[in-house]
Design a protein that fits this description.
Layout: E1 5-6, H1 11-18, H2 45-59, E2 71-76, E3 82-87, H3 90-93, H4 100-112, E4 120-126, H5 130-138, E5 143-148, H6 150-153, H7 164-169, E6 176-178, H8 183-191, H9 193-204
Parallel strand pairs: 1-6, 4-5, 5-6
Antiparallel strand pairs: 2-3, 2-4
Bound molecules: zinc ion.
Length: about 210
């Protein structure tokens, strides 16, 4: 079985190649950024665009009545064509499994009327939890690209501390896991004032 794993920080590349804005909050230097795998980056300018679009889509929820930092996009791997995007809807659906990635995968397979999402890449603002990463593996997704890390999200809400790459490595499926990509921009979703307010409500939610 071949295991693919690439994780690196494209921040420098982002700044130099795209000049992407940022009124974003920088993550302190002591945040965990350790990665395994080859030193060169496999993250393309297209990945940065897809991730930036996923972050922008998710950020729109911050102005609404249900702010959420978790958003996902499913994109055709070769053409870069967007299939769909989805947000976390746990509270709205009364469904603990309505994470953005699971919802995106369910919507995608239904739309395509196929069980397999081979040929597609999942972009997500946060490293998939074990449930979401497992769903991506069961769907046969080519590649998962994530923004913030589980540890980042865990500063604000409960998480299951198993890295997505580890879930993939323990499966029989091949799936490239790349991240963190646009970590600062993704993490800024978590630290937005409206999101911080929402997290306080989440923490007392029954
Ligand atoms: Zn999840």
């Amino acid at each position: 079985m071949m295991i693919f794993y690439r994780a690196r920080n494209p921040r420098r590349m982002l700044i130099s190649s795209m000049g992407v804005h940022s009124s974003i909050r920088r993550i302190p230097a002591n945040k965990p950024t350790k990665s395994r795998g080859p030193a060169h980056s496999s993250v393309s300018p297209s990945d940065l665009e897809q991730m930036a679009a996923t972050v922008a889509f998710t950020a729109r929820s911050l102005a609404g009545s249900h702010p959420r930092p978790f958003g996902a996009s499913i994109v055709h791997t070769n053409s870069g064509k967007l299939l769909l995007r989805a947000l976390n809807r746990v509270a709205q659906d009364f469904d603990p499994s309505s994470h953005a990635e699971v919802r995106a995968i369910r919507l995608a397979t239904k739309r395509l009327k196929k069980l397999s999402l081979a040929g597609y890449t999942l972009y997500t603002t946060c490293e998939p939890c074990p449930m979401c990463m497992s769903t991506a593996l069961w769907a046969g997704i080519d590649r998962v690209v994530y923004g913030a890390k589980i540890a980042d999200a865990n500063k604000h809400c409960k998480q299951i501390q198993i890295p997505a790459v580890e879930v993939a490595a323990r499966s029989d499926m091949q799936c490239i896991v790349d991240g963190p990509v646009l970590r600062d921009e993704s993490y800024a979703l978590f630290t937005h004032p409206r999101m911080l307010q929402a997290f306080r409500i989440w923490s007392t939610r029954k």
